[in-house]
What does this fold into?
Amino acid sequence: MFTKPIATIEIRNRPFYIPAVLSFMDSIVAGHKHHDYSRYNRMRFVVGEVLKARIKNAYPQGEGTLFVDLNIHNHVFEVAIRDKGVPTWADFSYQKERIAETDDDFRNYVLDMYVDSIGTEMLGHDGQRIYIRQRILNPLEFVPPPPYEPTEVLDTNLSIRAVETEQDAIEAIRCIYSEYGYSYSYERMYYVDSLLQMIRNGELMSFLAVNEHGQTAGHFALTFSELFPEMPEMSTVVTRREFRGLGLFGKFMEHCLTVARQKGLRAVMGQPVAFHPMSQKAFLKAGFTATSLLLSYLPAELESEYNSGDRLDLCAAVKLLDTDARSTVYPPQELCGFISKMYDRLGLSYSLGQTVPAEGPSLVRIEDNTVMHMKRIVVSEAGEDLKPLLGDAVTDAIRRKHEMIELFLPLHTPCCEDAYRIAKEQGFVLSGVMPGSKDVEYLVMQLLLKVDRRYDQLVLVGEFEELKDDIVRLTKEDAL
It folds into this structure.
């Protein structure tokens, strides 16, 4: 993600280096006149606290070396602390009910609120990396529109156009606001400058449906991520209430697939709600394959017509566009039939490789999302240390009062069998597969920390219902 490294500072594990690192950061940011210094100062405080904790804990037996990397990508500033010291996950956990009682809980709560994200990556032989990220460009704030009031539809001759101008971006934000208020989990969608910057940098393709009188009927997007190369997600789909019943969702999907083919993308992913059969049918009709069930995925605070006070369940579906695509995957033995069935439906040419035991150190990335009340763990390589790493991550999630942990295991590497076994021992349960992206295929698992897996409450059709039955069968076999 961070393709513009600024500098790397090498220090010893001594507290007196902290002011020098912060001063160097100040000199870098001072050269960018458009930065929001209030946001930067909050980040500066967090960096100082994280660096202080890491200097204290990394090398308890003596001296060691730490590296501080300064990176920038678009308007996001990242400071990362790398070292080969003692791994840690829980330095920054807190209990909300205790923040008025203990200094540590209050400090860690403040750290979490002050920056956009803090995460940890396990780098194998290269040690570990703690990153702090903050969007520090002074934004053009979006002023919320007045309460939603139905308007008269002047015509239903709708066309789709890409979001390109500032006014287009405002219309897109108004659409998102009309459905989600300010609860949509991707905060950058609410800033005009940020939305346009993501579009220019290829992180997002945003579209509006507009009638001949210039009324906006809806919005949708293709969003790109590092996790799924060449497989964007169809997301942020909103149809204004006055324009519902016109088949806009199908038109949105058709347009996404057309654009994706024109760009030579490998596949497209979608996430229909797990109790909205019409959207599931639309994906299946368009040739998507049901691949995962993402239970209790969206937080209860989400403001939408689907929310009923509980976390929302989603499905995942993939449509392969590259008919020449091939994959070699290494599924756990007990899942070979399940995965072969899914890949056959997807139309992806594949071969099953021979699994091998996990060896050496693991490569793991862990991200905490306080808005979503969840932790995401992405395993790139599973090694001998995966069991304690997952155990510590689960403990940290419980301390943070997270409600769900999402785990991605590398189906494209021979160590997936061991990783799957270890994950099951830690309480993770199969959710499905995320195939279709270039060079990476993932086995998806979840650990729900607040609620049970409510399969009986899902409203599914077709392949999604069959996927649920397969997962329930495999999960029950695990429990025997």
Notes: Residues 22 and 44 are 7 Å apart (CA to CA). Residues 37-57 form the longest helix (21 residues).
